[in-house]
Design goal:
The chain is an alpha/beta fold. It has 5 helices and 11 strands, in the order αααβαββββββββαββ. The chain has one domain: NagB/RpiA/CoA transferase-like (Rossmann fold).
Length: about 210
């Protein structure tokens, strides 16, 4: 019998490769994703957008222009924030402690460094995961079918699991983050509706690229 590599082992190997690749691009000039997203109908239609604040030194796609576009057009923005036990009324409260949830991000919001140094609102106003019309997320790698490889903690997948029916999930990626072969996945992994590349708005996944 030929043994096949488990998704867990395959993901671990791919993460090592992706992090090494990312290290090579840390000094690259950041590229704009706004023009690309303006060509995506789901971006134009969304009234509440879940974005993210890049981890310092991670080479994640910048979002300042995207946040500004939302604010300038009167849309609400929320970002992941770590829920400490002291932030809620107990284990069954919303948001659930000991994990990430979504918090409102508006002009003037004071930011602090959360776990792993990721910026987040200092005094969160929590937003249910079923409120955003659109989620825009980063990743280490994506493939042509919309599969996403994250860091392995499952924080983003847990948030996405609470999204409402019809909410659109977009990945942001540089061309070097698109895997040439299908990525391994687990039942709890959430695939992207489209993966958006900078400048030209190309999509490398199902759905949005054909809109």
């Amino acid at each position: 019998m030929v043994e096949t590599e488990s998704p867990r082992a395959a993901k671990a190997a791919l993460r090592r490769e992706a992090r090494a690749l990312r290290a090579l691009h840390l000094r690259d000039e950041p590229q704009s994703f706004l023009d690309a997203l303006l060509n995506v109908p789901a971006w134009r239609a969304a009234r509440t957008v879940a974005l993210y604040l890049p981890q310092p030194g991670s080479a994640e796609p910048p979002v300042a222009e995207l946040v500004a576009d939302c604010w300038n057009s009167g849309r609400r923005v929320c970002v992941p924030a770590w829920v400490a036990p002291s932030d809620t009324g107990g284990e069954c409260a919303f948001p659930e402690p000991g994990r990430y949830s979504l918090a409102l991000y508006s002009p003037g919001t004071e930011l602090v460094a959360g776990p792993m140094g990721i910026p987040q609102p200092a005094d969160p106003t929590w937003v249910p995961a079923d409120e955003p019309d659109l989620f825009v997320v980063p990743g280490l790698l994506f493939d042509a079918s919309g599969r996403r490889l994250g860091h392995g903690a499952g924080h983003i997948d847990r948030i996405l699991a609470g999204r409402r029916s019809g909410a659109v999930v977009l990945g942001l990626a540089y061309p070097w983050q698109i895997a040439s072969a299908p990525l391994p996945d687990d039942p709890w992994d959430v695939s992207m509706d489209a993966v958006v590349l900078p400048v030209d708005g190309s999509a490398a996944a199902r759905g949005e690229g054909d809109s």
